[in-house]
């Protein structure tokens, strides 16, 4: 049994699964009918084309069904874009499926996500809220599935960037992007405190614009924490940018050319700029 050192995150099962299933449906529609050259278009992720991105999703969902990663034909840990054990597992699936047609990889995606839908829908509340190991450390299985929603949605945006079919405002008005942004927001204390090392007393306001508009606040009082408000105090540093662009930076991706790329800093502009430089928290 995994024993977390912090309270488990309790999330509504129907809400999270609604978002996860929605992004799988969106990916299915995006990939349906792609030509073989489209499947080989380079993605924003080093070393991966569109097919590799989908192979990665297939591999992760297969792992969650208890299916072991295939044996690689080379030492994938020596590849320049593989940085950790998770990357090794990802690359095993990417190389294993690289020789398959795009249509074949899409069929695998449909098969594995279909099995996962049934397994997830059948989870009891106790199983949903149980402690497990997640990419963000020990937490609830529900939190893990919100991370899966974030990961799949980010990869949908990677594929859209590769194919030059960016998300419309309507595409961004749904449960999956909102849950993905919720997951990113939960990490901002870590980003501001641990990665950017904002000094004690800092109050950082993220103002996101566009279809993913929201405000996020991080206060540093001994440790950095996401807060609902600053208790009437003004922020000491403000970062304002398009919400989709914020997700791209948080995921270590290039900004989308289809949306406003301006980033505005207020208050302590040096600190604000330093935080943006440290936004990438994805392992």
UniProtKB/TrEMBL annotation:
Domain Mycothiol-dependent maleylpyruvate isomerase metal-binding: 22-160
InterPro entries in alphabetical order: DinB/YfiT-like (IPR034660), Maleyloyr_isom (IPR017517), MDMPI_C-term_domain (IPR010872), MDMPI_metal-binding (IPR024344)
Gene3D superfamilies registered for this protein in UniProt: dinb family like domain
Positions of the MDMPI C-terminal domain: 179-273
GO MF annotation list: metal ion binding
Superkingdom as given in the UniProt entry: Bacteria
Name of the protein: Maleylpyruvate isomerase family mycothiol-dependent enzyme
């Amino acid at each position: 049994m995994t024993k977390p050192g912090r309270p488990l995150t309790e999330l509504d099962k129907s809400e999270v699964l609604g978002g996860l299933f929605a992004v799988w449906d969106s990916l299915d529609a995006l990939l349906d009918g792609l030509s073989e050259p489209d499947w080989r278009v380079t993605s924003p992720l080093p070393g991966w084309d569109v097919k590799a991105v989908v192979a990665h999703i297939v591999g992760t969902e297969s792992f969650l069904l208890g299916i072991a990663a295939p044996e690689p034909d080379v030492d994938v840990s020596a590849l320049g874009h593989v940085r950790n054990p998770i990357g090794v597992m990802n690359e095993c699936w990417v190389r294993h499926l690289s020789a398959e047609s795009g249509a074949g990889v899409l069929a695998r995606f449909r098969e594995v996500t279909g099995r996962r839908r049934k397994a997830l829908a059948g989870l009891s509340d106790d199983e949903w809220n149980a402690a497990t190991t997640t990419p963000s450390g020990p937490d609830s299985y529900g939190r893990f599935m919100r991370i899966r929603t974030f990961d799949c949605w980010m990869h949908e945006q990677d594929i859209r960037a590769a194919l030059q079919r960016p998300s419309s405002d309507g595409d961004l008005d749904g449960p999956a992007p909102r849950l993905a942004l919720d997951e990113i927001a939960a990490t901002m204390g870590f980003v501001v405190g641990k990665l950017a090392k904002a000094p004690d007393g800092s109050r950082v306001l993220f103002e996101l614009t566009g279809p993913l508009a929201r405000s996020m606040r991080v206060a540093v009082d001994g440790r950095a924490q996401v807060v609902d408000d600053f208790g009437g105090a003004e922020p000491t540093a403000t970062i304002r940018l398009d919400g989709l662009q914020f997700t791209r930076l948080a995921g270590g991706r290039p900004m989308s050319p289809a949306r406003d790329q301006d980033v505005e800093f207020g208050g302590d502009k040096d600190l604000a700029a330093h935080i943006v430089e440290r936004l990438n928290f994805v392992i």
